[in-house]
Design brief:
Length: 296
């Protein structure tokens, strides 16, 4: 049992609050909600036969359980948030055959549990601008007319913001983008946005998808956003996600990421990885890759 749950339970359950230390930096997964993906709908090049071999990742309804949330990065009293969850949004009929259900709304409550108010966040850095990553940046809490992070810089990669029109077919509406716009500051590949936090472009899922590399040479973490949605993709990098903008680029990113995460000094953060959000990749004697949770 790990953190009160067996590994089988963790692969099928949205994550709880979890934290790691990276030298002088603390990173904490802050849950907002969950999404339930239909395996062959979300991963259209996968087959039911292949998923039969990965049934450990499927809940009783046959769905891939994908948590939704943010990564809180804290150092020297300062706080950065990577992504902003789904928020208190109730979509109607979105997702088609790929998404069986989605909900959010718990992020602010979970931040409070960690002793943080929205005003403590100096910047929100987005991996990309899909609706399950920008939720609390464009809509207020129920009963409030103020955006909780309106005071914070909204850090978006330059190509993501420049080609934001390409995101509208995937649910990111003009209304949402207009709400973000006043606080947006574009960032570039390699830029340090917070102590020991650097941007790395990983284009493919969206026109300007970014990952964030956090920590020192001794122990670092890669917050890879939607480059991967499930650990099952480590052995199937050709399983692109239905909304991927460029499937060839996203496949190349997954291959490179799987190799990099095998380094002993490198931990991955998979925001959608059910209750195994922090982990490393290990290869067995046959070259099969496994996601090994890191809990401390």
């Amino acid at each position: 049992m790990l953190y009160g749950r067996s590994m089988d339970e963790r692969l099928r359950t949205p994550a709880t609050i979890r934290s790691l230390r990276l030298g002088e930096t603390t990173v904490t997964y802050v849950p907002d909600g969950a999404c339930y993906l239909t395996p062959t709908g979300w991963f259209p090049t996968s087959t039911e036969q292949e998923w039969a071999a990965h049934s450990a990742y499927l809940d009783d309804a046959g769905h891939v359980v994908a948590g939704i949330g943010s990564l809180l990065v804290e150092r020297d009293g300062r706080a950065l948030l990577i992504d902003a969850g789904f928020g208190p949004y109730s979509p109607q009929g979105e997702g088609g055959d790929a998404v069986a259900g989605i909900h959010g709304g718990a992020l602010l409550e979970n931040l409070a549990q960690l002793g943080r108010a929205p005003r403590d966040i100096e910047a929100v850095a987005f991996t990309h601008l899909h609706i399950d990553h920008i939720g609390w940046a464009w809509q207020p809490a129920p009963g409030d007319d103020r955006l909780p992070f309106a005071h914070a810089a909204h850090l978006v990669s330059e190509p993501e913001w420049t080609r934001r029109d390409l995101l509208e077919p995937h649910g990111t509406s003009r209304k949402m983008l207009d709400a973000l716009a006043p606080a947006v500051r574009t960032v570039t590949d390699g830029e340090e946005i917070f102590p020991d936090v650097r941007v790395r472009l990983s284009t493919g899922h969206t026109p300007g998808h970014a990952t964030y590399v956090i920590g020192s040479a001794d122990r670092r973490l890669i917050a890879f956003g939607d480059a991967l949605h499930s650990p099952a993709q480590l052995n199937h990098p050709d399983w692109h996600a239905a909304p991927d903008h460029d499937t060839s680029q996203s496949t190349d990113v997954r291959r490179a990421l799987a190799a990099e995460l095998q380094r002993p000094d490198t931990i991955g953060f998979g925001v959608h990885f059910a209750d195994v959000v922090f982990g490393q990749v290990r290869a067995d004697g046959d070259g099969r890759l496994a996601w090994v949770p890191v809990d401390e």
